[in-house]
């Protein structure tokens, strides 16, 4: 079970013209970093490191510095591997987002290996059961199109079983409000409407939009501001009763400890491929559980991270929603490996049953889709 080799694949595919527009710009390509860990006895585990808009750099960090630190360690010792990277890399130079993302994919691959070694699916290894997990329709979808088109996009999702959808806002307050109203009017009070500004709002925008969100019973307002704008979140909290959500850009339990102390962000969204892996998300979920805060993992980009997120949700007691990536033509969900999840007619998903994370990764896909340099949103 000793770690013999760590390989990282920075991978990309172009998005056809007319890609989704949201608070961080227009999508022009998709990137990811897949991490392959092989043990001396030949078990292969796969994990995802979020690309961090620097997928080739993240892959390099994994294959050079981090790999050299942990080769030869016991693959089952996820706590020890985490602690070693923390001691020699993450802790000493401030909380580096790149290192947190790089180590996340390694940690995820090690949990995949552990499951395969004992023949158990990950949810079982984490202390969970094959319980249904409520999903919302999210991912790079439901963007800044006119209200009528937005309803056309949401209609088949609701027909497929989703009882919650996430709209992209952070455009103008007027257009955002028109989109939220249109969806509420089209589908009624039974639908849970969540929103994500992708850091596109000013404090004045939130002051303006909050009364409409309260009136429309919006489930949460996600990332109105960048993660480090603690004072803006605190100010925004006073403008209404719609809960504030964030976490996909908070790294490790050390950044979530500030969130816990502030008592302002009450919906937590750690990303297993960013915040320090499955090991660290379990710690963050435990911190949140002390205050009965639900955990709703952010789950882009690949089916591997999505499947791992469902396992985790089936194993923690403060599970919120699974973010079902309903974006069109996400090859990282549909072609990179075997099917990661399927929405049930009642809006729920189930964790996979195969040992480990349960997604069979196609290395040929990774080789056929090498990294494309440049920004993913313009
Ligand atoms: Mg988001």
Automatic annotation (TrEMBL):
GO biological process: one example: amino acid catabolic process
Superkingdom in the source lineage: Bacteria
SMART domains according to UniProt: MR_MLE
Keywords, ordered alphabetically: Lyase
GO molecular function, one term: lyase activity
Designated name of the protein: Mandelate racemase/muconate lactonizing enzyme family protein
Pfam families membership: MR_MLE_C, MR_MLE_N
InterPro entries assigned to the protein according to its UniProt record, in alphabetical order: DgoD-like (IPR034593), Enolase-like_C_sf (IPR036849), Enolase-like_N (IPR029017), Enolase_C-like (IPR029065), Mandel_Rmase/mucon_lact_enz_CS (IPR018110), Mandelate_racemase_C (IPR013342), Mandelate_racemase_N_dom (IPR013341)
Domain Mandelate racemase/muconate lactonizing enzyme C-terminal: start-end pairs: 147-243
């Amino acid at each position: 079970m000793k770690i013999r080799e760590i390989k990282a694949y920075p991978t990309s595919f172009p998005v056809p013209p007319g890609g989704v527009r949201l608070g961080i710009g227009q999508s022009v390509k998709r990137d990811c970093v897949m991490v392959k860990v092989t043990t001396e006895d030949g078990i292969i585990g796969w994990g995802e490191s979020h690309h961090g808009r620097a997928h080739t750099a993240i892959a390099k960090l994994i294959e050079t510095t981090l790999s050299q630190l942990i080769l030869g360690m016991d693959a089952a010792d996820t706590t020890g591997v985490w602690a070693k990277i923390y001691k020699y890399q993450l802790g000493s130079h401030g909380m580096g987002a790149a290192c947190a993302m790089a180590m996340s994919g390694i940690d995820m691959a090690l949990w995949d290996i552990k499951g395969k070694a004992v023949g158990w699916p990950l949810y079982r290894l984490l202390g969970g059961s094959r319980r249904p997990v409520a999903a919302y329709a999210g991912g790079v979808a439901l963007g800044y199109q006119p209200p009528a088109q937005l309803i056309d996009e949401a209609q088949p999702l609701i027909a497929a079983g989703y009882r919650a959808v996430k709209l992209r806002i952070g455009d103008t307050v007027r257009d955002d409000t028109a989109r939220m109203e249109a969806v509420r009017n089209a589908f009624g009070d039974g639908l849970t409407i969540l929103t994500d500004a992708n850091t596109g709002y000013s404090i004045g925008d939130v002051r303006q939009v909050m009364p409409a969100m309260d009136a429309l019973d919006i489930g949460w307002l996600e990332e109105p501001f960048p993660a480090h704008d603690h004072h803006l979140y605190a100010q925004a909290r006073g403008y209404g009763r719609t809960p504030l959500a964030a976490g996909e850009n908070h790294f490790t339990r050390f950044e979530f400890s500030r969130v816990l102390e502030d008592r302002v962000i009450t919906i937590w969204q750690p990303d297993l491929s960013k915040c320090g892996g499955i090991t660290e998300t379990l710690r963050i979920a435990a911190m949140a559980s002390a205050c009965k805060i639900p955990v709703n993992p952010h789950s882009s980009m690949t089916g591997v991270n999505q499947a791992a997120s469902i396992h985790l949700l089936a194993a923690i007691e403060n599970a919120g929603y699974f973010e079902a990536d309903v974006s069109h033509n996400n090859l990282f969900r549909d072609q990179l490996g075997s099917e990661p999840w399927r929405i049930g007619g009642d809006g729920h998903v189930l964790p996979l049953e195969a040992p480990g994370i349960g997604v069979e990764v196609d290395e040929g896909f990774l080789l056929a889709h090498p990294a494309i340099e440049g920004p993913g949103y313009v």
